[in-house]
Amino acid sequence: MLIGVNATFMNQRPTGLGVFTIEVLGALSSLHREMVVYSPVPIESLSDEVVSSVSSYVRGSLKFRNNLARFLYLNTILPVKLAVNGIDVLFCPMLEYPFYNSVPTVIHIHDIHPVIFQDEFKRAALPFKISLKMLRYGKIRLTVSTNHVKNEFLDYTSFPDENIDVVPLAYNSQNFYPREEGFRTEFLKKYGIRTPYILYVGNLFRYKNVDTLIKAFLKIKDKLQHSLVIAGNRQLAGDFSPVVDDRVVHLDYVPINDLPFLYSYADLLVHPSLSEGFGLTVLEAMACGTPVVASNRAAVPEVAGDAAFLIDPLNIQEITDAILCVSNDNVLREDLIRKGLKRVKDFSWEKTARGILNSCYKAVEQFRS
């Protein structure tokens, strides 16, 4: 079985979706070597022989011209390449795929945020909704990150339940683990961070609820010695406005190799999202031995299990109480750290890759001519 992979959305600064693609393709290539990846950039987890280069004009970008170029490529050039290369099944790591395609296709759905939060996603919401509607016309199976995403997806579509497989995401255990204290001073100096600090990692769209976290922190900052570090790509900020306060530090994009140090040296991670398809930062922080305070909504409890201090993300009092409690109670901190390190062992990119590979086999069998 020759698997084609649509990675045309990749760029040089991978965030959540890019990290998922790099990790899952690296694991998939170890399990199944017959693969062709269509990408505008090299993918570090793959050899150059596996990657079929496409024009940089189709790369992942917030610019309309790049998104238009990618749409045209997917619906004109890619189907021809799939036929010429003899591809048996196409895997799409996100909801971008050729609408008219004779090859069975497996698409991973991370969430349906562009439908739920149309005001934030603006022009991206329309193509997402069209892509959802077109699913019924193709030879398509879906993989989803959590049961929460599956249930939410089925509420919005009439796609057959039996054609959806739940395939949880994971974290890179070779990169995310507790880092030595010896690197602390140099690392924190690099980013201008003073310790101790409370950490948020993720994009800055409104549904991530970072504004509420900042309000909660400012309410209790006089009871703490901590600063609040917001690590979020400012290109993915929606209408978020940075707060000017000497105890609130705003970082832009943090390279993936620096993230484990950022997690490890934090006193705790707060993840207050109102909606989440998975919550990768929760796992990454736990793997680095950092206690986690997290939202009790959407997919976060499914991922965190009993290893996080769960709060109502819209209740400022609950957030402040949780921050103070985890910051001051060493017994609770150690319990959360222990449970977190145990919880992350349930997740691996190899498991994710096996789930996707099984879905590819199912698609080929199901849609065999």
Description:
This protein has 2 domains: about 5-170 and about 350-365, Glycogen Phosphorylase B (Rossmann fold, 3-Layer(aba) Sandwich), CATH 3.40.50; about 180-345, Glycogen Phosphorylase B (Rossmann fold, 3-Layer(aba) Sandwich). A 7-stranded parallel sheet has the order 3-2-1-4-5-6-7, with helices on both faces. It has a 6-stranded parallel sheet with strand order 10-9-8-11-12-13, with helices on both faces. The chain is α/β, with parallel strands linked by helices. Strand 12, helix 11 (about 300-305) and strand 13 form a beta-alpha-beta unit. The chain is built from 14 helices and 13 strands. The two termini are about 15 Å apart. Helix 1 packs across helix 14, helix 8 (about 210-220) crosses helix 12 and helix 10 (about 280-285) crosses helix 13 (about 330-345).
Q: Which secondary structure elements does this structure contain, and how are they paired or packed?
A:
Elements: E1 3-6, H1 16-31, E2 35-39, E3 51-53, H2 64-85, E4 89-92, E5 105-109, H3 113-116, H4 118-121, H5 125-134, E6 140-144, H6 147-156, E7 164-166, H7 184-191, E8 197-201, H8 210-220, E9 227-231, E10 248-251, H9 259-264, E11 268-271, H10 280-287, E12 292-295, H11 300-304, E13 309-311, H12 316-328, H13 330-343, H14 349-366
Parallel strand pairs: 1-2, 1-4, 2-3, 4-5, 5-6, 6-7, 8-9, 8-11, 9-10, 11-12, 12-13
Helix pairs in contact: 1-14, 8-12, 10-13
